[in-house]
Design a protein that fits this description.
By secondary structure, the protein is α/β, with parallel strands linked by helices. The chain is built from 22 helices and nine strands. The chain has three domains: about 375 residues, no CATH class; about 120 residues, no CATH class; about 120 residues, Rossmann fold. The strands form two sheets. It has a seven-stranded mixed sheet. It has a two-stranded antiparallel sheet with strand order 1-2. Helix 9 runs antiparallel to helix 12. The C terminus is likely disordered.
């Protein structure tokens, strides 16, 4: 380990210890002087918690940053003049410090006064202007006005996204730690820890160390919150360090020729900060649909929706940490393999879209019937829901990814300039042709979450019809000039069919993951149930138990009972199948109920089950009945309840479980 690495390690350790101690001091002062945030209906925490944690770790960050600048530029802080030009990197670093101080002070004031969103926006624009004036602008279009506008939008978006992500213990600080660490890794491959390397490496490590010291106080269960003083400050610093500039050697995008360089300059920082961007987008869209302000507080963030699915608060935080790590890995791959950047980024966006649509179905609050939305809201809702806008957006991304990957597979990952040109020119034709074919095949008339084997022919017709149509149009328009490949279109069709079907099945995968990690297999005070019959009827009954709130909130299926030796010892729906003797031999805190899954299982079999238990228990039978009510047919799943001696209700009724 060289001297520079040793000094940097000593620095980050000192910054961490300073932030850890500083946050502890602020926490003590908060309780002494009443700087405490009380539980509110639109907030997640349930107990009074200390506030102003940002003050605790900000001094450690500033002192560490000043030490880095002094070592790199041999600065005598007493001789710095505002009227003398500074080196580009030094000017950007000082602008970062000035802007962060403005955001910290304003956030602290906002914690006390509660400013309006317009006032917050004014402060954010002012702080962003400091960094932009120093030269921190996205190098995208070559038109300064456009690039500056994008940079302003980036600062405002990321700063508010981090502020909104601070909605659960340890969530915002942990995600920012992952993002800051990723920024350091992005700058390391070309330079590493060298004196003349990008300044963002030591800056991001100092920033992460300071925030890590705070995280130990903020992790679940949180003992202190950072408040707006902390969230606005870290959002601003993260946004500034992510902007491609001389601070980070433009993330190496200058070495990428053509139009791909500016695209990567935007994709890399966006992927690093995908979690706060995703959460803010989800909240904004869902609140607009409900005719609510996106800036107001609420319990409808992605973290709250995951808890609503049955995950614990700690597991929810780690799931979002994992998403942040996944985004960091994708950003590094995009930087290291620029020729495969678009497929990699497309796959990541695909995962985010699927997750967003799935979480969008989770109900986190009940609409107030007395509050009527604006006139335009029903129209927008109808357009976005009835026309399946989410599915169309998803299919567009799938077509683009599969088309690009098909050409990469056909040419072994290396595309010539001519092939790249014709592929990009054919991509809009492929997208339009496939979407039209999907519509004509009736894919958008089906229900996404309820896809079955009978729907596969429609998907096959739509997919391969779209491929044939796109190939025909490309041949007609371009005469299939050099660079095109018919075999690439065949690969494209196969990939697209698998991708489209897999995307529709993804909801079932999400359901399975949630059930496995959530409350589906965790009793939590619910009555345990053994399902008699580990066949198709048992699987249907288990799905009804887990998806129907009437049953899932009161009962928990812990296993299946079956005497078939070909089934016992295996698992169905993630829970074991055993003989009744094996279940009886277990230690039970509460005697389980037995639910008979099929009408073909006789009552005598149920009576034999009861003989194995030496105490009273409840047996129920699941029945699928069709009743005629006012000339309308309805199918209901109901369970007939038995006592310790099984018998059929003499009035021929089927009662719900009590």
């Amino acid at each position: 380990m060289n001297a520079l690495s040793s000094n940097l390690l000593l620095l980050v350790t000192t910054v961490f210890c300073g932030a850890l101690l500083g946050t502890a001091v602020v926490r003590h002062l908060a309780w002494r002087y009443g700087w405490v945030v009380l539980p509110r209906e639109d907030r997640w925490h349930k107990h009074p918690t200390a506030l102003h944690g940002g003050i605790g770790f900000y001094p450690a960050f500033v002192l560490g940053t000043c030490w880095v600048l002094a070592q790199k530029f041999d600065i005598d802080w007493r001789q710095i003049s505002l009227f003398e030009p500074l080196e580009k990197e030094l000017g950007l670093a000082i602008a970062l410090l000035v802007g962060s101080l403005v955001m910290l002070l304003f956030g602290l004031w906002d914690d006390v006064k509660q400013f309006r969103p317009a006032t917050k926006l004014l402060c954010q624009l002012t702080s962003a202007s400091v960094f932009i004036f120093a030269g921190g602008v996205f190098p995208l279009t070559g038109f300064p006005v456009v690039d500056i506008f994008v940079t302003y939008f980036w600062f405002i978006g990321i700063t508010n996204a981090i502020n909104m992500l601070d909605n659960m213990d340890g969530l915002s600080s942990g995600v920012v730690i992952v993002a800051g660490t990723t920024l350091a890794f992005l700058a390391m491959p070309a330079h590493g820890f060298v004196r003349n390397g990008p300044l963002v490496i030591p800056l991001s490590l100092v920033f992460v160390s300071a925030l890590l010291g705070f995280w130990f106080h903020n992790r679940p269960p949180a003992r202190i919150f950072m408040g707006d003083s902390g969230s606005l400050f870290i959002g601003y610093v993260l946004a500034a360090m992510a902007v491609p500039s001389s601070l980070n050697d433009f993330w190496g995008t200058h070495a990428v020729g053509g139009a791909l360089g500016p695209i990567l300059a935007l994709l890399i920082p966006s992927t690093v900060l995908a979690v706060p961007i995703f959460d803010t987008t989800l909240v904004t869209i869902t609140r607009k649909w409900r005719a609510e302000k996106a800036s107001q507080g609420g319990r409808d963030h992605s973290s709250h929706r995951l808890v609503g699915l049955g995950l614990s608060e700690k597991l929810t935080v780690w799931v979002l940490y994992s998403f942040a790590i996944f985004g960091g890995i994708i950003s590094i791959l995009v930087q290291r393999f620029p020729e495969k950047a678009l497929p990699l980024f497309g796959i990541f966006v695909l995962v985010l879209i699927l997750s967003g649509v799935y979480l969008g179905y989770v109900k986190v609050r009940t609409a107030d019937p007395n509050r009527l939305p604006p006139v335009w809201t029903p129209l927008v809702t109808q357009l976005l829901y009835k026309r399946h806008a989410a599915e169309i957006l998803l299919d567009t991304v799938l077509v683009m990814i599969c088309f690009d990957v098909a050409y990469l597979l056909r040419f072994d990952g290396v595309l010539s300039e001519q092939t790249t040109k014709v592929m990009i020119g054919s991509l809009p034709i492929a997208v339009a042709s496939c979407l039209v074919s999907f519509f004509l095949a009736g894919i958008y008339r089906g229900q996404w979450r309820l896809i079955s084997v009978s729907d596969l022919p429609s998907y096959a017709i739509g997919t391969f019809g779209g491929v044939i149509l796109s190939l025909s149009i490309v041949t007609l328009v371009s005469r299939f000039e050099a660079g095109h490949s018919r075999s690439a279109f065949i690969i494209f069709g196969l990939l697209l069919f698998l991708a489209v079907v897999g995307a529709r099945l993804s909801f079932r995968v999400f359901d399975s993951l949630i059930m496995r990690n959530g409350k589906a297999h965790n009793i939590d005070g619910r009555r345990p149930v053994l399902i008699y019959g580990a066949a198709k009827a048992g699987k249907i009954l288990h799905e009804e138990m887990t998806s129907n709130p009437e049953f899932s909130e009161r009962y928990c299926a812990v296993g299946f009972v079956d005497d078939d030796p070909n089934r016992t010892g295996r698992k169905l729906c993630g829970i074991p199948i055993k003989r009744i003797e094996e279940w009886v031999g277990l230690h039970w805190k509460e005697i389980p109920e037995i639910w008979i899954s099929s009408r073909f299982i006789p009552d005598k079999a149920a009576q034999e089950l009861l003989q194995h238990w030496r105490c009273d228990m409840t047996v129920r039978r699941a029945q699928l009945r069709v009743e005629c009510i006012e000339e309308r047919r309805s199918i209901t799943n109901k369970l007939s309840e038995y006592s310790s001696v099984v018998g059929i209700d003499s009035r021929n009724r089927v009662s719900k479980p009590s």
